[in-house]
Amino acid sequence: MLRTVVRSVLRDRHRFVLPALAVLIGVACVSGSLLYTESLARGAERLQRASRPDVSVEVRPTGGGAAPGEALRRRLAALPGVAAARGTLRGPAFLVARDGTLVGPPSADAGVDFVPDAHGADPRYPMTRGRGPQGPGEIAVDRWSAERAGHRVGDRMRVVVAGEVRSVRLTGVFTVYDPATAADGTVTAFDGATARALFAPAPGRYASVTLTAASGTSAPALAKRAARILPRGLDAVTRAELDREAAAAPDRQKLGTLLLLFAGIALFVSAFLVSNTFTMLSAVRAREHALLRAVGASRRRVLGTVLAEAAVVGAVAAVAGYALGVGVATLLAALFGPAAGPADTAAPALLSPLPLLTALCVGVGFTAAAAYVPALRASAVAPVAALRTHLPAPAAALRRRNLAGLAVTAAGALLMAAGEGDLGVLSLATPVLLAGLILLTPQLARAATRALRAPVRRLTGVRGTLALANARRDPRRTAATAGALTVCVALVSAVTVALSSLSATAGREAEAGMPTDLRITAVDYAQVGAHTAARVARLPHVAAVSAVREAGIRLRDGSDLWTTVVDPRAVGRGRLADLTVRAGNLDDLADRTDAIAVTRDLAEEHGWHLGDRIAGRRLSDEGTADGPALDRRIVAVYDGPDALGPALLPESAVAGGGTPESAVLSVLVRAEPGHTAALKEEIRRALRNPVLLVEDRADAARDAEQGFGPLLSVLYAMLSVTVAVAALGVANTMGMAVFERAREIGLLRAVGLDRAGVRSMLRVEAVVVSALGAGLGILAGAAAGVAAVAGQHGAVISVPWAALLALLAGAGAVGVLAALGPGVRAAAVPVTRAVGGEVG
């Protein structure tokens, strides 16, 4: 049997090339994703060890416990077997290059504490030039960042820390292997006192304390000794546990899952191609299967033969796909990993057991599963019936398929309508709707070709008529070919419509939520300086300005109220923003020492009225009610934007009391009439801070809308693989149709259809099938995209018609390209040979 299967595959190898290529692409995506995830884990583990070579045990808060302090560090340093105990501090710090731009992405710019030993060296940051920082006006940076910033030891440079720009002197350059530099960011070292002032979680506290084991002391033994003296809320973790945590970071696992999801989609689309290939091969081999049955072969033998062919094709594709997967993993590292820097991710392994075994199982098992239904259909045909040259699908079977398609489509549409934006329901409704449309595709293909008959005949003449007849001849085959495109285009359409709607919604909300002329905010991972509002207030053309903070109050009923803290002089009498006062007077926020203003919605929710008192305890930034008591009187009830709600507290209400002030979220500025644009430029020149954004309403809306652009590009890049597989499906169908219709093409050539006519006929057929699949996909995808957004409050439904029409035109182009090869091959065969047999 094996020899028969191998001979059969080799004989029809030209028919298995495209299905094998589709499986190869899917396997390459799966194995590449697994290899890349493994390389990330190895790289993270290596980076964890290299970034802190002196760590044997780390003492850190757990379960909301307080950070370790200096007294505990000294106690830990006195333990037997401890060579050194180091307090660790880390926070955001941004280097400014000579041209005024930031060095590295803000998400990966870190500031650290330089802890010298008796010789003035820090094992984590070994100096290559200069020395470590020794005062508040000095810093040292990693070598890679110094080169990009264009600075040398001794230069003065700018660094942004705690929202403020500082002019400092560069005293040293060091080498480092750190998560920040691995992500193309920067590492800036400050002296210990400065680092404590900037990055300490609380006065006298460290983020963690790391212990270096003395010679002869193991990390587990040291961790046990440390655990005996640790207060509740602190934990001692060994180096091995830290390495495992770094390798199993949740974000890395999420990325691996996302990549595998798209690889699975590519494989699913490949199933249409594999199934269609074996369906067409079964029709071609009907006589061969009949002879096997006639000489005694059982249905199981025929079924096993076809499945064995699929397994052989899958095995070959899996081996080649794994080899290509190594390249895919390298490409993913270039796209998602560090673009540059001294600490790249580990190279993907050439032979990794799990990805290799997965590739083989997926390639063989998936191909065999996709070929099972065609194989079962081939084995079910009686020997006498199989001797016929053509076996059209029974009308009863098509009727059953149409009824099932109507039921499934209706179920999917009802689920989508009932989902109301619930992603869980939509993730079920969308596949159900797609399945129903694919089941209906044979009937829809008949209807579409009937509707297109007249216009296509006028445009292309008899060639178009023949092409439409070919598309109608085997509706199941047309459905299988169009189904792959339906799935791909549906995914692309859903992503396009959903992100376009989310972008429009975000833009409108950003513009409507801007309470005043200008707003100063920080880029992600940075913050606005505490003195920014005061500096802006000194500029000309400023009518009102206020820093905006957030403060939480734990009310006596146990609920939490998060308030907006503002300058009370700025919000009174509509100086800063147009707030509609329903009762009381906002000027009382500045005049009374116990004042608070609440929005009308909040007052109605709690049953509060003007003059009522709100009592509670201030919340810390972590949400614990350990701050000072607050007792405030409602002096105004107002309506206003969310940015100034749901309650207003004056700055004096949260100053002092033993609780540090919350970080400034933004600075709101109202310009004098007619001076908004000029003031925006004045603020930028005055602050000279590259981490701060000065925006008007149009800027806010535009930035919010553009925020979805990178995500859309990444999703398009991932989905382009599935579109390529779907295009292979169209090309495969057209190519096999040429072999099937050899005699028919020869007869057409004999009665006068020239080579250009043959190519045109195949082109029209491919375009019709592609457009049918794309049209159904756009319909289902657009519905899914709208349903995903429609349930959100205040959602703006934005259907990018131009993009969807371009998608439909692209599907037509796919059909044209898919028909090029088969058309040239069919037109090049002499008429006498085509009439006599097979084209190939």
TrEMBL record:
InterPro entries: ABC3_permease_C (IPR003838), Macrolide_Exporter_MacB (IPR050250)
Keyword Iron recorded: no
Subcellular location: Cell membrane
Main location: membrane
UniProt keyword annotations, A-Z: Cell membrane, Membrane, Transmembrane, Transmembrane helix
Highest taxon listed in the record's lineage: Bacteria
Pfam families referenced in this protein's UniProt entry, alphabetically: FtsX
Occurrences of domain ABC3 transporter permease C-terminal (ranges): 261-380, 718-827
Gene Ontology MF terms in the entry: transmembrane transporter activity
Keyword Transmembrane: yes
Recorded topology in the membrane: Multi-pass membrane protein
UniProt-listed PROSITE patterns: PROKAR_LIPOPROTEIN
Transmembrane segments: 16-36, 258-281, 302-334, 354-373, 403-419, 425-445, 479-499, 714-739, 766-789, 801-820
Family per similarity comment: Belongs to the ABC-4 integral membrane protein family.
Protein name in UniProt: ABC transporter permease
Species of the source: Streptomyces corchorusii
Organism classification: Bacteria, Bacillati, Actinomycetota, Actinomycetes, Kitasatosporales
